[in-house]
């Protein structure tokens, strides 16, 4: 089960952010935004001319005492960051990949909405509900 999801634009501006515990939102924002350095490092070091063939899933970016941070980057450089509670040992790598695929699909649906303005933060209640369902595993 994920505790936080962040979607970051190609210019490293936050597009969407949600947590299961709103009281810790600022702490999780710090963790998500600090993960961007690791994402950029993985993108720059791992793709010396093979940018089209790279893997979208970046894996675990780093781990803390209480949380693990995972990353995923689309072909258009949109970054998805998931923060998972480190005490959850039942969550496997393929389940994290599945969560990223579902989030990517929901993101593609919201961006294709004719009322969405490209580049603006996502403020849809239905999108937030869908992401929280993916985070808790009730999808």
Your description of this structure?
This protein is of the alpha+beta class. It has a single domain (2-136), classed as Beta-Lactamase, CATH 3.30.450.70. 38% of the residues lie in helices and 24% in strands. The protein has helices spanning 25-46, 93-111, 125-136, and strands spanning 2-8, 14-19, 57-63, 67-73, 79-85. Strands 2-1-5-4-3 form a 5-stranded antiparallel β-sheet, with helices on both faces. Strand 3 and strand 4 form a beta hairpin. Helix 2 runs antiparallel to helix 3.
N-end to C-end Cα span: 12 Å
Question: How many DSSP-defined strands?
Answer: 5
Q: What average pLDDT do the residues reach?
A: 89
**Rg value:** 14 Å
Shape: globular
Low-confidence stretches: none
The chain-level structural class is alpha+beta
Please report the number of helical segments. 3
Tell me what the CATH architecture is. 2-Layer Sandwich
Share of helix, binned: 25-40%
How can the largest sheet be summarized? 5 strands, antiparallel
User: Which CATH first-tier class would you pick?
Assistant: Alpha Beta
**Percentage beta strand:** 15-25%
Defining traits:
139 residues; alpha+beta; Beta-Lactamase; 5-stranded antiparallel β-sheet; 5 strands; 38% helix
Helix-strand blueprint:
Elements: E1 2-8, E2 14-19, H1 25-46, E3 57-63, E4 67-73, E5 79-85, H2 93-111, H3 125-136
Antiparallel strand pairs: 1-2, 1-5, 3-4, 4-5
Helix pairs in contact: 2-3
